[in-house]
Specification:
Number of domains: 1
Strand content: 25-35%
Number of helices: 3
Largest sheet: 6 strands, mixed
CATH topology: tt1808, chain A
Shape: globular
Structural class: alpha+beta
CATH architecture: Alpha-Beta Complex
Length: 154
């Protein structure tokens, strides 16, 4: 019998696809860098390997893309929360991502159709705001980002 960890639910997969699609259009097709969707290994710092939902590595950033993973802190990480991971995403992951220098962190909440924007400020992620509806996240790393938050939820 084959045993595997269950895949994320359909809503998570749908939202991940939409966030990836819009970031791909703005970042990768816009020549700003590369966008990766899970599963992808990220080694943002020594002895730290994570698998975020979505990773953005800009050409102006410090992360390097190898055949196996990205090495160094990506410019943006997106996590899509579920009831079982919400506190982990907003606590331990947030602190880990800040400690290794990830400049921007989006926490996408399928239940409330919101996106929390956190930016790196003095080795900590500072909460900026929760965005919903027609609001556009004022990304500090993605030039030209102009997608209404509700579009990320389908």
């Amino acid at each position: 019998m084959l045993r595997m960890t269950p895949a994320p639910d359909i809503a998570h997969q749908s939202i991940s696809g939409l966030v990836f699609y819009y970031l791909l259009q703005t970042v990768q097709l816009g020549g700003q860098g590369r966008v990766f969707a899970a599963p992808v290994d990220v080694e943002p710092g020594p002895a730290t390997i994570v698998q975020p939902d979505i990773v953005v590595v800009l050409v102006t950033g410090v992360a390097q893309i190898t055949e196996q993973r990205t090495v160094g802190p990506p410019d943006l990480i997106v996590e899509i929360v579920s009831p079982g991971t919400a506190s982990y995403d907003r606590g331990e992951k947030r602190d880990t991502y800040a400690a290794v220098g990830i400049r921007e962190y989006w926490i996408v909440d399928p239940g409330s159709h919101t996106v929390e924007l956190l930016i790196l400020d003095d080795a900590q992620h500072r909460f900026v705001h929760v965005y919903r509806g027609q609001a556009i996240l004022p990304s500090t790393v993605i030039v030209g980002w102009s997608v209404a938050t509700e579009q990320l939820f389908g």
